Amino acid sequence: MNTQTHNQTGFAEATGSTAAITGAPTSAEATPEPPNSVEDVDAKGRPLAVVPARVPWLELGIFAVIAFGLAWLVCLPLWLSGKGLSDVVAVQLYGALMMFTPLIASIVASIVQRRRARARGEALASVPRCFGFWPLRPFGRVIWMTVAAFLGIMVLVVLGYFLSAAFGWFSLDLSGLSGFRAQVATLPGLDSVPIGLAVIGYLLVMVISAATGVIVTIGEEFGWRGWLLTSLRPLGAWPALLIIGVVWGLWHAPLILLGYNFNRPDISGLALMVGGCIMVGILFGWLRLRTGSVWPAVFAHAGLNGSAGMLMILFVNAGASNPDPALSMFLGVSGWIVSAIVVAVLMATGQFRRQPELGIKKAEPLAEDAPQPSAHAQTVCST
């Protein structure tokens, strides 16, 4: 929990090629375009491209009401008990349940959307395609991007702490690992374990723990980067990403207003969360758009949740004062800067313009479709 597109029916990469025309034939002599080598509908006649023809505003409203309403309902015991965040087990339990509210909201909104589309005689892509969880094709692109996202977000978290230390917001102890040693000292039987071996074991536990977090991050990402991003893509990639970032941040209000993440139980804490969700949401949204799949975002989210706190313990100086999470956390200012740099690189390399669909390959032009040189060109080439 710590935590794009034109008004058209989709971005199918399959394209047909027109036959080459040499000379200046009349319209009657023009060679017709061959059919696409890749069908634009599935076996049931549903479009393969996922972007709807229009933004489903009614369904978006339904999504927001359910997601926000259920989030507050789930966290209500934390408010009524008077304990707030002091009951760690309750916070973890209700926080995990809260993460499934976007999924529930997206399922209801999707059902309404499809019934209304059928009433209008419109066809929508299949549910697995709209949510981005199937098919896993191209397999290499989806799987390797998922692995890269899961581990890459951890690298960005480390860079965030290093940047924070460079600005004086976070005290590092890379030589002595005093923060980590202090944590190990609280665990019986580990005081005799060599520090190098302890670090390896700690990182292994972190990776495994983060991977198991996929169970709950599915709840959020199927909602945010699955259904919601697909539904907002007629607005354009950037409007969709920014809107989702704001909505995602505000959705965290039931916990943030209790002091979760930033120790600021007020509007400033919520504003920080919105800022963090916008920046991280752009990265997660790019993963969905670039691969067509929601799985890289699911695993990136799990990687962030599972590594941010544990990596802080590994690097922090035990003798220094507690860092301000608003500055040092990845959802705080240091993380905003790191995310902004990554986004700038992606933009400069044109990565946001590449938005393939799952299971659709670009058609290769047939040999007979290749342009033929004109007679003049042949003469020039032969001299």
From TrEMBL:
Any idea which GO molecular function terms this record carries?
endopeptidase activity
Where do the segments described as Disordered lie? 364-383
The molecule here is called Membrane protease YdiL, CAAX protease family
The record's listing under Pfam families reads: Rce1-like
Annotated TM spans = 60-80, 92-112, 142-172, 192-219, 240-261, 267-287, 294-315, 327-348
> Lineage in the entry?
Bacteria, Bacillati, Actinomycetota, Actinomycetes, Micrococcales
Q: Where is the CAAX prenyl protease 2/Lysostaphin resistance protein A-like domain?
A: 206-305
Would you kindly state one Gene Ontology biological process term found in this protein's UniProt entry? CAAX-box protein maturation
* PANTHER family cross-referenced by the UniProt entry: PROTEASE, PROTEASE-RELATED
**Record key words, sorted:** Hydrolase, Membrane, Protease, Transmembrane, Transmembrane helix
Q: Which domain of life is it from?
A: Bacteria
